Amino acid sequence: MKFTINRNQFIKKISNVQRAISTKTTIPILTGIKLELSQEGLTITGSDVDISIQTFISVSDADNELHIENTGAIVLPARFFNEIIKKLPGEQFTLNVVENNQTIIKSGKTEFTINGLDANSYPRLPEVESNEKLSISAEMLRQLVDETVFSASKQENRPILTGLHLKISAEKLLGVATDSHRLAQRIVKVNNQSDNDYDIVVPARSLKELEHCLIEDNSEIKISISENQILFEFQNTLFYSRLLEGNYPGTDRLIPTSSDTQLTFDAKSLLQSVERASLLSHASRNNVVRLAIDVNASKVTLYGNSPEVGTVEENLTTEALSGADLEISFNPDYLKEALQAFGDTKIEVEFTSALHPFTLKPSDNKENFIQLITPVRTF
């Protein structure tokens, strides 16, 4: 196996594949990156079993400056190989696999020889065969991930909650994440070319890595789903992820259908206020802030407290205020992450009581996006 390629193009192409490679894997060969050269181009694969990413560098794309002498395949130690390529001096490099899987990498006056592994020992990628594909824009998928996965659980004691629950029917995709203390739900449009409905749970970690791979917002992503795998196809790249097993808990019943107190805020302004209050709450053992709503006085006050440091009190500016008076306590970090997902927009916050979850919705898109936060009992 021997080829020459533009170094910068190669680095750009393998950056996604590197995301699937872990040094903690129990399968030694998966710490390597697989290169497979055919007459059509170079296929590069990385995997940690849970996530597998494969990208293709075409010989027909002149920008790649890919010149093939001999086809073949090799697995190279990913960390060393990546560092070597980044530090080579020339604009191009040549890779040549000789006897016993030894691999010579040349660029300018520099030459490395590293030990490779037999590519036949590399595990096969999952098979996801489906003629019934879904499609969604990269921008919409990134938005869905940004607005939901932060609410997935970080704890492994309930593995199903470490994923994003996706329900697909007709041209609607509903994504829900919860760690049992908060919830994020978003509905987006997809182009569903099948008559099937889908109900799956994708690990949050997989979706975060996928989001990093999505560079062009206007690109279209094709999605195929099998019994225990999901495949995302975009820009000569295949991104595989395992699906989580088990039934996701019913979350519809958690979202209140009515409220007793309603407020409208500028999301960015409220976020800044919560960040200030949390400066002191973080110094406290319980990390709680308190919101006091006095409807008659049109007054909303946010309190933060640390017995060791001091207190903070801030009167919040509201766009609208109605309903019953209320005092409620909650984790400010949950509210900060929820507000960050809304960006710069007006939001409606609705409360039912001091001990029931409250909701946040964008004023202009209330049906398709909702965040829910469970309060903290302080008495």
TrEMBL record:
Domain DNA polymerase III beta sliding clamp central, first and last residues per copy: 136-249
Positions of the DNA polymerase III beta sliding clamp C-terminal domain: 253-377
Protein name per the record: Beta sliding clamp
Gene encoding the protein: dnaN
Family: Belongs to the beta sliding clamp family.
Organism per entry: Bombilactobacillus thymidiniphilus
NCBIfam families associated with the record: dnan (TIGR00663)
SUPFAM superfamilies in UniProt: DNA clamp (SSF55979)
Quaternary structure and partners: Forms a ring-shaped head-to-tail homodimer around DNA.
Places the protein is found: Cytoplasm
InterPro entries: DNA_clamp_sf, DNA_polIII_beta, DNA_polIII_beta_C, DNA_polIII_beta_cen, DNA_polIII_beta_N
Annotated function: Confers DNA tethering and processivity to DNA polymerases and other proteins. Acts as a clamp, forming a ring around DNA (a reaction catalyzed by the clamp-loading complex) which diffuses in an ATP-independent manner freely and bidirectionally along dsDNA. Initially characterized for its ability to contact the catalytic subunit of DNA polymerase III (Pol III), a complex, multichain enzyme responsible for most of the replicative synthesis in bacteria; Pol III exhibits 3'-5' exonuclease proofreading activity.
